Amino acid sequence: MPSRPVLYAQLFLCTVNVGWVTVSFVFVEHFTFRRLLFRHMWIWPFHSDSIIDSGVGDVLLNPWRELSWTEKGRGSLRKNLVSFKPACQSLNQVRVLLMGPPGSGKSSFINSVRSVMFGRVLLLPFIGTATKGFIKKLKSYDIRSERGGKPTALTLCDVLALGDGETTGLTLPDALAVIKGHAPEGHKFQSDAPIKAETSGYRPNPSVNDQIHCAVFVLNACQVMTTSEDLTETLRTLQAEISDLDIPQVVLLTHVDQVCHAVQEDVKFVYSSRILQEKMQKAAEVVGLPVSYVLPVKNYSSELSVSCNTDILLLSAVHHILQAVDDTFEDYCPPTPADASPVTGICSASPVQCQSSPVFNV
Ligand SMILES: Nc1nc2c(ncn2[C@@H]2O[C@H](COP(=O)(O)OP(=O)(O)O)[C@@H](O)[C@H]2O)c(=O)[nH]1
Ligand SMILES: [Mg+2]
């Protein structure tokens, strides 16, 4: 017969400030000895406006974003990705470009999204801690619904990492050439050879399907507070230039498991962690976008099998990216008379032909 774990009890004194009223209460919780030890490592300090309800960090009472942390929630997010079709019928694939400093987790995100779909952690060769990053060329990865399955409408594009200044890493003109669709697949970036009409495979007249439909800035939560002035400048300049092209942009904040013990225990605390809230605010400030554009994720990095909550956070980030693309490109899909809504006149839910894309809109 399996032995039952010995249970320990602990008294918690909690104080909650609601306006000018302070409510104090005591509760008792039971847990095993191992858990008891773990809890005491992170239980201090207490803050007056938060409740340490998990015992593993500074966790706010109410999460500021809601997610359904259930198998069902994961299933429906996964299904949404598999069945996603861009609202703009001319778009075959949604091409999402990941940009960020070396080691921020760009390649890991691609690996992680593929892992979610395959149901097991993949060990692709392009991830690591090389100081300048492994990827030197433009490489696009289809996301398939399962191993050997049909590609979904999402393509994730990896490029050379951003440098600290203008002299290293992906340059602004090269980034814009990729976004506008001029750079051919596999283009090898060279600091002394910017992409131009003479570049081999250069596309002088790229189609809407050659361009990038969402720019994602990837930042490491462990390093975001100490982002250099040069990198901040690079990110903000890119952000402003991409805004001029009317391409949606979001920030992917990776390594969230490494900045908060509660999140390390379980990523479902990501939107209840005060530390994470601060990091997300900083990430938004660094890039120059609102906090609502910041999507935290934990990439698969040390584990060999996928887990439900990590999948949910990754799929939720993908969902928001696809949503941002639909919201933006919808404006460039004028409704046909049959599709037009009598009240608002905006695109109907059914896919319609995209007459001009943001980049090429004049
Ligand atoms: N703990 C943790 N490690 C991560 C995460 N994302 C990436 N890594 C690790 O960070 C390192 C650099 O990641 P990589 O994807 O190669 O970065 P890239 O240069 O931006 O493509 C690798 O060792 C990854 O395993 C994350 O969310 N959490
Ligand atoms: Mg990489």
Would you write up a description of this structure?
The structure is a single chain. The chain has 362 residues and is an alpha/beta fold. It folds into two domains: 35 residues, no CATH class; 260 residues, Rossmann fold. It has eight helices and eight strands. It has a six-stranded mixed beta sheet, sandwiched between helices. Strands 1-2 form a two-stranded antiparallel ribbon. Strand 6, helix 5 and strand 7 form a beta-alpha-beta unit. The longest helix is centred in the last third of the chain and has 23 residues. The termini are far apart. The N terminus is likely disordered. This is Interferon-induced protein 44-like.
Can you tag this structure with a few keywords?
362 residues; alpha/beta; Rossmann fold; two-stranded antiparallel sheet; disordered N terminus; binds guanosine-5'-diphosphate; binds magnesium ion; Interferon-induced protein 44-like; transmembrane helix; transmembrane
